[in-house]
Design brief:
By secondary structure, the chain is of the alpha/beta class. The chain folds into 4 domains: about 80 residues, no CATH class; about 325 residues, Rossmann fold (3-Layer(aba) Sandwich), CATH 3.40.50.2000; about 240 residues, Rossmann fold (3-Layer(aba) Sandwich), CATH 3.40.50; about 110 residues, Immunoglobulin-like. Helices cover about 40% and strands about 20% of the residues. It has 29 helices and 27 strands. Helix 11 packs across helix 12. The longest helix has 29 residues. The model has no long low-confidence stretch (mean pLDDT about 95).
């Protein structure tokens, strides 16, 4: 076999074009329209062929064209202006500069995710999780938040989708050309390529580290495709969500253990670790191991500090959708590692089991047990998550489950069309934007109604025309690939009409998203689409996972309906959905359709992207939509009804969509004045933009993470790592555990059954047995509310009782509550642990109710 040697060739840029090298290397360009316009002007064909990758364009553009550009004063002037804009962006004062505690100079967040959607030229994403991760990094950069991302460096990224003549999804796996992508090899202190060791069972493999600059921040990617690794280990990072269960656990070990080691090797010292979905949960064990070594602590002592400084975001509202592994597979790759943790294999595996009898090791359960700050990604999803994971927190009332919610958002500058961007800045820009010059912060959204209806409508029509052009071009290429003749190709010019109400549906083709719900009654759909006064047309796009046969059947159903003469040229399915296609569709359709099975959509962000661009949402009340919906901004499909079976649910909600389209949506759209402007529609557009855009942005989301989760995690973590606090807390928790079986509480109130009046005080008294615990180590409460049918108190008020003396071995606790409500009141006494250094008291979930 021949021996291969490699070297890289860099583009030879003229001196006055040198800034292109830096601009092409930083993903900042992906949300800066001026930069994109300049890059497109260099060679539009190369720009599209590169999948919007400027580094590839610079490597492929002919030297003669570079020479020509270097002599073009308009181009060099534009380049210098953009470079100045970039330099100003990097150096200016930020929101974080103005708002953080100046004494917390070491604050830093490490954000771990399996996928990141930053730009099409960096194909490391498959769906909403990746889009969220990419937008999180971008807003962190805009706001100046000290945050770094950590992911994997995939040789093949995610699948490319192609449809055969029958409409069946086929997959391609093109290899990423990393030499021409905006990544650089991270170096060690000696200037050599940085590799970190990752324990994998009885072996140790190496992971290379790559850096992707994203504005002010960076994303670090781990790569096992190194010559030093055995061939089967080189394939670990070959493909996003590819391979069997063994490959998946290896990927997650590399991401979790290797990611922590990589940050340490880079000299970065995060004070908060944020785990975005359970894939990276192994990092918690590596953090514990690291703290044990550095602070000379036991596993249980180090665990306290790691727990207090870790944030975990769950995204999946279905138990089966969370990452589960066979315990024997986990043992094969992790048992040797547990020896460094100083715990038994049984202790290790128990951390990932929902219950002692559970058959699988769940990564989500690991994160729920080892991270103190837990959140879902919408208010409804927070409720669903608390219900899902009750077994991890037994005996804790639903309302007190330590899983909160931070509703997702989108990075507005990445998803807004440049036409809408210009329109909003023209009419809505605040006089003094201060440290927040990006949309949405730069705009006064209350001024949306100063935009003339004609301008709002015409801006939308421009984007609609561009989307239709994209659809026609892609369908022409799609048909040409399948061997269509020129007459068929020419018919693509008749696809979609700009004056027709256009409904968009584009997302992962997971079955719960019900892509074909609208097609349950084809005769009804025919009547809607071909209504001569109020016609409708449909644009669909999306990929099914390569192993999801049911999802592929949904793709096939819609693709084949394109050939039905009733829907020809009025229904399109665009193959190979990606960020660019998504951008055109959310900017160009009139209505964004979303009809998942409630409550299986954790959040959903595509509708947020659509609303930025004046597109109205027609959605099931799931994910983020219950927080945003009102009749003034869009339409709701159904409510929170319960159905007898799936068929009834689908029939009812499919009919609801058709009713809304035929009786409300289309009539409003086609109700135009003598100038051709649908005034009522435009008013709804303005309502939607002004109410949704500022609230459902990642700027708001990242600030919320900073205030509610990152800052307390940073402070608790710092405290527990100093002056022996972690050891003291671990000893206290051990004492609580040893004594908890001896804790008892009984009601000793003097007026159990006496009636009282509103405004009067009710006196509560309890006798509490504490074993060897001291009174200050617990909190005694009485919960007053109404008993729910499920056996829990609703709307309860918690009254803290104070120790007032002893009666033999029992402590006496007493307290008063002024009664504000009339009617029956139910109450229950309980004891919970109490410690000043706890983010929350429910891990382990010690709680003792009166029996």
């Amino acid at each position: 076999m021949m021996k291969i040697h490699s070297f890289n060739v860099a583009p030879n840029l003229p001196d006055n074009l040198k800034p292109l090298a830096e601009l092409s290397q930083n993903m900042w360009f992906t949300w800066n329209w001026d930069a994109i316009t300049m890059l497109v002007s260099m060679d539009e064909d190369l720009w599209h062929r590169s999948h919007r990758n400027p580094k590839w364009v610079l490597g492929a553009i002919p030297p003669a064209r570079l020479e020509e550009l270097s002599k073009d004063p308009a181009f060099t002037g534009q380049l210098n202006g953009i470079k100045q804009k970039f330099d100003s962006y990097i150096s200016r004062e930020t929101w974080y500069d103005k708002n953080h505690d100046k004494n917390e100079k070491d604050f830093m967040v490490a954000y771990f995710s399996m996928e990141f959607g930053i730009g099409e030229g960096l194909p490391m994403y498959s769906g909403g999780l990746g889009m969220l991760s990419g937008d999180h990094l971008k807003s962190s950069s805009d706001l100046g938040l000290p945050l770094v991302g950590v992911g994997l460096y995939y040789q093949k990224g995610y699948i490319q989708q192609v449809l055969n003549r029958e409409g069946w999804q086929m997959e391609r796996y093109p290899e990423n050309d990393w030499a021409n992508m905006p990544v650089v090899r991270a170096k060690d202190k000696n200037g050599q390529p940085l590799n970190v060791p990752v324990p994998l069972g009885n072996e140790t493999i190496l992971a290379g580290v790559w850096q992707v600059p994203v504005g002010r921040t960076s994303l670090y990617l781990l790569d096992t495709n190194l010559p030093e690794n055995a061939p089967h280990h080189r394939l670990i990072t070959e493909q996003l969500y590819g391979g069997d269960r063994e490959v998946r656990i290896k990927q997650e070990i590399v991401l979790g253990l290797g990611g922590v080691k990589a940050l340490e090797a880079l000299g970065l010292k995060p004070t908060v670790y944020h785990i975005n979905e359970g894939h990276a949960a192994f990092l918690l064990f590596e953090r514990i191991r690291k703290v044990m070594k550095e602070k000379n602590l036991s596993f249980h002592e180090a665990r306290e500090a790691v727990w207090a400084s870790s944030v975990f975001t769950t995204h999946t509202p279905v138990i089966a959708g969370n990452e589960h592994f066979d315990p024997e597979l986990v043992r094969r790759f992790m048992e040797p590692y547990t020896r460094e943790l100083g715990i038994s294999w049984e202790e290790f595996i128990a951390i990932g089991k929902e219950e002692q009898k559970s058959a699988t090791f769940c990564m989500t359960v690991v994160a729920l047990r080892l991270a103190a700050y837990l959140n879902g990604v919408a208010k409804l999803h927070g409720d669903v998550s608390r219900e899902m994971w009750r077994k991890v927190f037994p005996q804790i009332p639903f309302s007190e489950m330590p899983i909160t919610s931070v509703t997702n958002g989108v990075h507005t500058s990445s998803w807004i069309s440049h036409e809408h961007h210009s329109l909003y800045l023209k009419y809505l820009k605040k006089p003094d934007s201060g440290c927040c010059p990006e949309i949405p912060d730069v705009c006064d959204w209350n001024k949306i109604y100063t935009i003339p209806d004609e301008e709002m409508w015409n801006t939308h029509q421009i984007r609609k025309g561009k989307m239709i052009n994209l659809v026609r071009q892609r369908m022409r290429r799609q048909l040409a690939r399948l061997g269509a003749d020129s007459t068929v190709l020419d018919e693509t010019e008749d696809l979609l009409k700009p004056e027709v109400l256009t409904i968009g549906f584009a997302r992962r083709f997971a079955t719960y998203k019900r892509a074909t719900l609208l097609f349950r009654d084809l005769d009804r759909l025919d009547a809607l689409i071909n209504n001569p006064q109020q016609p409708i047309q449909l644009v669909f796009a999306g990929k099914a996972h390569q192993a999801d046969t049911a999802g592929k059947e949904l793709v096939k159903t819609i693709a084949r309906l394109m050939q039905d003469k009733r829907f020809k040229n009025k229904l399109v399915f665009i193959e190979d959905y990606n960020m660019n296609v998504a951008r055109y569709i959310v900017q160009g359709v009139d209505v964004w359709l979303n009809n998942p099975i409630r409550p299986l959509e954790a959040s959903g962000t595509s509708g947020m992207k659509a609303s930025i661009n004046g597109v109205l949402n027609l959605s099931v009340l799931d994910g983020w939509w219950p927080e945003a919906y009102s009749p003034e901004v869009g339409w709701a499909i159904g409510g929170s009804e319960h159905y007898n079976d799936e068929a009834e649910r689908d029939n009812v909600e499919s009919e609801a969509i058709c009713n809304l389209l035929g009786k409300e949506v289309a009539p409003l759209y086609y109700s135009k004045d003598q100038h051709g402007i649908p005034r009522g529609w435009v008013e709804k557009m303005k309502n939607s933009v002004s109410r949704i855009t500022p609230q459902f942005s990642t700027h708001r989301m990242v600030r919320e993470y900073f205030d509610r989760l990152y800052t307390p995690a940073h402070r608790y973590g710092k405290k527990l790592l100093s002056d022996g606090f972690a050891a003291e807390l671990a000893k206290w928790r051990y004492r609580v555990g040893e004594n908890w079986s001896r804790v008892r509480i009984t009601d000793d109130s003097p007026r159990h059954h006496h009636e009282t009046c509103t405004g009067q005080k009710m006196h509560f008294k309890a006798r509490v047995m504490l074993g060897n615990l001291r009174p200050e180590e617990v909190q005694v409460q009485v919960c007053v509310g109404q008993l729910h049918s499920k056996g829990e108190l609703e709307n309860d008020t918690k009254v803290i009782l104070n120790p007032t003396g002893r009666d033999g071995e029992a402590y006496i606790y007493e307290g008063d509550m002024t009664m504000a409500r009339s009617g029956r009141q139910d109450f229950a006494f309980r004891v919970i642990p109490n410690h000043a250094d706890l983010p929350h008291p429910f891990m382990p979930p010690y709680i003792k109710w009166e029996e």
